[in-house]
Amino acid sequence: MAITIKNQQDIEKMRIAGKLASEVLDFITPHVVHGVTTDALD
Q: Taking the CA of residue 5 as centre, how many other CA atoms within 13 Å lie in the half-sphere pointing to its CB?
């Protein structure tokens, strides 16, 4: 498996994606409780 060298544009896109993922997890965390299905969270 080859390692791909990332350029600054690729790194910035990864940074944005990571920030968005973090925001989604912060948003959904209070709703994740025992008995709530993933279907209900969707």
A: 1
